[in-house]
Amino acid sequence: AGVTAAPFEAWIDDWQLQGADFDRLRMRASGPEFTYDVDLQANGPLVFHGDKGFSVKSAKGQASYYYSQPFYKLSGTLTLPEGNVVVTGNAWLDREWSSQPLADDQSGWDWFSLSFEDGHKLMGFRLRQTDGSYFASGTWITPKGETTSLTPEEFVATPLEISDVGGREVPTTWRVQVAKYNVDVTTNALNPQAWMDVTLPYWEGPVTVTGSHNGRGYLEMTGYE
User: Fold this and answer.
1) How many helices (H) and strands (E) does the chain have?
2) Which of 70, 79, 120, 185 is placed for a possible disulfide with 211 were both Cys, Cβ 3.0 to 4.6 Å?
3) Cα 214 to Cα 38, 89, 171, 183, 185, distances in angstroms
4) Nearest in space to 63 (alpha carbons), one of 108, 94, 97
5) Tens digit of pLDDT for each residue in 98-142?
6) Can you name the residues that pair with 37 across neighbouring β-strands?
7) Is 225's pLDDT higher than 90?
């Protein structure tokens, strides 16, 4: 594994992401039953969450630096045992870092990145407090990349259905609401069993989006051990 800053390249074994800058990247990876080789071309600006990238995570001041490139167009080849498949689509890259852990009264987070068919996008999260309350935040993104930060009261995520994931109770269907933009959608996990059994285990996977806005998205959840 390794990384170089300029030109950018990061790799783990034969998984590799590289490019002169983040406007265009090449991504390659393989496993026992697949290989993919795709190009990512940005068709919009970087999006900085919170206050110019400073994203607050708790009332006590925990925070991270966080930006995204949600406007990638993707093209390339997926190689499967039955042969090559030419693929096209859209992609979303997140970059986030922090020197702070969660606050001592926080147990985990539920994180959404949603792309709607009309071109708008929504990033939102809620951090679960041990007293049953939540700290929430989000970013509303227009098709041109203009952003509006959402307050803790404006982004609302409510679990609707619980799945048994290896003996854990994990919410895999959600209602997501942002009233100021008339968003009231349901997200459903494509694979409710998408548990990542790594050193710090968590759930993550793609979701479908239906309701006031239709689309696709991604959900990440921690703290459901």
Assistant:
1) 0, 19
2) 185
3) 26, 16, 20, 10, 8
4) 97
5) 998 889 999 999 999 999 999 999 999 999 999 999 999 999 999
6) 28, 77
7) no
